[in-house]
Write a structure and sequence with these properties.
The structure holds two protein chains of two kinds. Chain A has helices at residues 3-13, 18-28, 37-49, 71-81, 94-102, 110-135, 140-172, and strands spanning 16-17, 53-56, 66-69. By secondary structure, chain A is mainly alpha-helical. In chain A, helix 1 (3-13) crosses helix 4 and helix 2 (18-28) crosses helix 3. The radius of gyration of chain A is 23 Å and the shape is elongated. Chain B is an alpha/beta fold. Chain B has helices at 46-53, 76-86, 102-112, 117-130, 146-158, 176-191, 203-206, 230-233, and strands spanning 2-13, 20-31, 35-39, 61-66, 69-70, 87-90, 164-168, 195-199, 211-216, 219-223. In chain B, the strands form two sheets. In chain B, strands 6-7-8-3-9-10 form a six-stranded mixed sheet, with helices on both faces. Chain B has a four-stranded antiparallel sheet with strand order 2-1-4-5, with helices on one face. In chain B, helix 6 (176-191) links the parallel strand 7 and strand 8 (195-199). Chain B is globular. The chains are: A mainly alpha, B alpha/beta. Chains A and B meet through helix 6 and helix 7 of A and helix 7, strand 9 and strand 10 of B.
Chain lengths: 191, 239
């Protein structure tokens, strides 16, 4: 998550105080990602150093300082908004590693291990849906954040289901050679 | 109080070496007002569990109790009456009668129960109203969107005294937004006291349920614990 770009987006609206930026950042992400004050001011200092924002020194130093976005800051923000994040390299996903590792451990039922993870993820999804059911109708930002998390978790369940099916088919077929996963090829896409 | 109970329910098809065990010793209890989702891979027995719960099919062994009545001890006629009066079904392909309007489709089960056409229609309108479908009441199914058709079929399933809703992939043919609307409706029906059992392969939709039961090879292998209350969530990373 790019805190610096999120702060730039808030400053496009109008000049703001540091404390105000922190509050608005948390509200704009549905209060799902809390941000500490130190993180906000460190990021603001870096943005100012890079001349993407400017502060108004006529005010008292510290929390009362007002920040505004510069033209370079606006250019940087619009470039960032239009650039898809780099997703070409698969993340080092602990869940995937656990399932791959389980395949190599004798006397382990991988299907049971998959179910442990499936249940956990579905329970998390129930908690998110529960929050959405109570609050999200009126709050667009919160709904979007919750949907993003639900789709992310849903993708995990789908992968677990697919892995389960693949293992079941593999158990019915002659054993193939279990070489190391061939994921060394890197994907390249134009962003 | 449990509205639906399955005790050691098994169902097999065929004989000898070709025998298939669709369900094996399944125990399940669904309280009044609760929403249970059944998940499992294809062939795990999800749909069989639903048809047996709704007395559309009989178990090979075990007991099914709906609202205190043990289905296995009822005559075929008594079972048919209980099914008609207390159980509503929702299918993936809606199954609305094409020659009837939305309100006529919803009123039909009441008329079959012996209520007058006028009373059936007014009760049907009340249900449609509670589901924001009044402006679609006089439309025929082919004049409704897929999402609206499924919402009408849910209205038909819970009209009158039907307190057990059984749904097989109710959002399978719908996009995400309409799928969620359907689950919201089932959730709302449960808040009003309906017990619902929904079969789905979609975790996103199953997450609307109070409890998710996982089937595999005809057995219940796992289930989620009910989600914590909002108070319990306070202070967690999700709050």
């Amino acid at each position: 998550m790019s805190v610096r770009h999120a702060l730039l987006a808030l400053l496009v609206e109008s000049p703001k105080y540091g404390f105000q930026l922190r509050q608005e950042f948390e509200a704009s992400t549905g209060d799902v990602w809390p941000l500490n004050v130190g993180q906000v001011y460190t990021t603001l200092q870096r943005l100012e150093h890079a001349e993407l924002i400017a502060s108004d020194d006529s005010f008292v130093e510290g929390p009362q300082k007002v920040f505004q976005i510069t033209e370079s800051g606006k250019t940087e923000l619009f470039h960032w908004l239009n650039t898809p994040p780099d997703m070409t390299a698969p993340p080092r996903d602990e869940l995937v590693i656990k399932v791959l590792s389980a395949l190599r451990v004798p006397d382990v039922n991988v299907t049971d291990i998959i179910q442990v993870h499936r249940r956990y993820v579905v329970e998390l999804m129930q908690q998110w849906t529960h929050l959405k059911e109570d609050e999200a109708e009126a709050d667009l930002t919160f709904s979007l954040v919750v949907d993003a998390e639900l789709f992310r978790l849903d993708a995990i369940v789908r992968w677990l289901d697919a892995a389960d099916g693949r293992l079941m088919r593999a158990s019915l077929e002659p054993r193939a050679t279990t070489s190391a996963p061939q994921l060394r090829r890197r994907l390249t896409t134009r962003r | 109080m449990s509205y639906l109970e399955l005790h050691n329910v098994s169902r097999s098809y065929g004989e000898g070496s070709t025998m298939v065990h669709a369900l094996r010793d399944v125990n399940l209890s669904v309280e009044q007002g609760s929403f249970v989702a059944i998940m499992g891979p294809s062939g795990s027995g999800k749909s069989t569990l639903l048809t047996i719960s709704g007395s559309l099919e009989e178990p090979t062994s075990g007991d099914v109790v709906v609202n205190g009545s043990n289905l296995t001890r009822l005559s075929a006629n008594e079972r048919a009456r209980l099914r008609r009066q207390t159980i509503g079904y929702v299918f993936q392909d809606f199954n609305l009668l094409p020659g009837l309007t939305a309100v006529e489709n919803v009123a039909l089960p009441l008329e079959l129960d012996g209520f007058s056409a006028k009373r059936s229609r007014s009760t049907a309108m009340e249900v449609l109203e509670s589901m924001d479908l009044v402006d679609r009441a006089n439309h025929f199914p082919d004049q409704l969107s897929g999402g609206e058709r499924q919402r009408v079929s849910i209205a038909r399933a819970i009209v009158g005294e039907r307190h057990l809703l059984l749904a097989d992939e109710p959002s399978g043919a719908l996009d995400t937004t309409n799928g969620e609307l359907v689950m919201r409706m089932i959730h709302a029906a449960c808040k009003r006291g309906v017990a619902a059992v929904v079969v789905t392969h979609d975790a996103h939709l199953a997450s609307w349920a109070d409890r998710v039961v996982f089937l595999r090879d005809g057995r219940v292998v796992d289930q989620t614990v009910p989600p914590p209350s909002a108070e319990a969530l306070a202070g967690s990373p999700l709050s």
